[in-house]
Design a protein that fits this description.
Layout: H1 5-20, H2 33-46, H3 56-65, H4 85-96, H5 110-123, H6 133-141, H7 150-163, E1 171-176, H8 183-199, E2 203-206, H9 216-225, E3 230-237, E4 247-254, E5 259-260, H10 262-278, E6 283-289, H11 292-296, E7 301-308, H12 312-318, H13 321-339, H14 353-356
Parallel strand pairs: 1-2, 1-3, 3-7, 4-6
Antiparallel strand pairs: 4-5, 4-7
Pfam families: Amidase_3 (PF01520), PG_binding_1 (PF01471)
Keywords: Hydrolase
GO molecular function: N-acetylmuramoyl-L-alanine amidase activity
Length: about 375
């Protein structure tokens, strides 16, 4: 059965873009093994799930990859913001010069608009928030005064310091998976963590209940509107080979654009270390990804994959209440360590809940 006209157009868009980006030698209206390999390489570079399939997130990434800075005029469109590599390049250059457009997420939102206007004002071009030829030429002329994303790191660390070490004034969103295979496990762990956090004075929001299952868009909206300090998403993994097992954590990062969530990366590493120090889960490391939940949530967001349901050993661990409690305690300690100053921090696996009050978790 031959593909429909719409499918042919999608394949053509994908292969043309992959060819222009160097992942394929020639474009095609068919999608065979060579094209699948090229798509996998693209997905790997973009921090997507490497499936070789043309799914929704991949199509959005393909569309964003089509644009280079200067290809089109950029401006803020409320309710329907422009997305693309050109926006990411613009944001990166603004950040490098010290203008605060927030996270480099390739989305031209209100904060990017404000940063463009500040830049335009500083270089003496028309202040209208529109990134057209004059603004782009000014960007090209100026030498980067700061490199390596230092302004973002400084701002993130400053915000974390201002909020202080106490958990009693923090807002944390817990996002348990709603997939049939792991919804019960994820929800149980989230509820256990919710109870412990509330007891410590934290304001906690669960992104779903046992009855209601909001879309990912609604979960992201909840996290952003709640003013969250941190978002933690709970999942498990699967693999065709049952020997795959262990714990992995994910935070927002895009190597292509040279950006990542500084706080998200630190928290992912803390969670990874604390859980593997307290359990026998294999350390599958932390990974930078550009999944929508990680990229579009304003607060530092970390996804935790608590083992493989395709592995009998991990399934047994996850079914053990004691194991779940150990995971929860590990995460609590990781949260506190995230906000402790370096001099008050402790070695991985040594800090206990009883120690947290001494470190300023809350006053009696």
């Amino acid at each position: 059965m031959s593909p429909s006209g719409e499918e042919t157009n999608v394949i053509s868009l994908v292969t043309n873009t992959l060819t222009r980006l160097g992942f394929l030698k020639t474009a095609s209206n068919t999608f065979g093994a060579v094209e699948e390999d090229g798509l996998r390489a693209f997905q790997q570079e973009r921090g997507l799930i490497v499936s070789g399939e043309i799914d929704g997130p991949t199509l959005r990434a393909i569309d964003e990859a089509r644009w280079k800075l200067g290809d089109r005029i950029l401006s803020f469109v409320p309710g329907k913001p422009l997305r693309g590599d050109d926006v990411a390049t613009l944001q990166s250059r603004l950040v490098d010069m010290g203008f605060d457009c927030g996270r480099v997420d390739a989305i031209f939102g209100a904060r990017t608009d404000a940063a463009v206007r500040e830049f335009q004002k500083s270089v003496g071009v028309k202040v209208d928030g529109v990134c057209g030829p004059a603004t782009i030429m000014s960007l090209m002329r100026l030498v980067k005064t700061v490199s390596g994303g230092a302004p973002i790191q400084l701002r993130d660390n400053a915000k974390r310091a201002i909020r202080g070490p106490a958990l009693a004034n923090k807002i944390i969103v817990l996002d348990p998976s709603s997939l049939p295979e792991d919804r019960e496990i994820a929800f149980d762990i989230a509820q256990r963590l919710e109870g412990r956090l509330i007891a410590l004075g934290v304001t906690v929001y669960l992104s779903r209940s046992s009855a209601k299952d909001p879309s990912e868009v609604d979960r992201i909206k909840l996290a952003n509107e709640s003013g969250a300090d941190l978002v933690i998403s709970f999942h498990t993994d699967n693999y065709k080979n049952e020997s795959a097992h262990g714990l992995a954590t994910y935070y927002y990062g895009n190597d292509l654009h040279g950006v990542h969530s500084v706080v998200g990366e630190r928290f992912a590493a803390l969670v990874q270390r604390e859980i593997t120090a307290r359990t026998d889960l294999l350390n599958c490391r932390t990974h930078a990804k550009s999944w929508d939940l990680l990229r579009l949530t304003k607060a530092p967001t970390v996804r935790i994959d608590l083992g493989y349901l395709s592995n009998p050993g991990d399934v047994k661990r996850l079914g053990d209440v004691t194991f779940r409690e150990t995971v929860v305690e590990s995460i609590i300690v990781a949260i506190q360590r995230l906000y402790l100053s370096a001099e008050n921090d402790a070695k991985t696996g040594t800090l206990k809940i009883s120690d947290l009050r001494k470190a300023g978790i809350r006053s009696d």
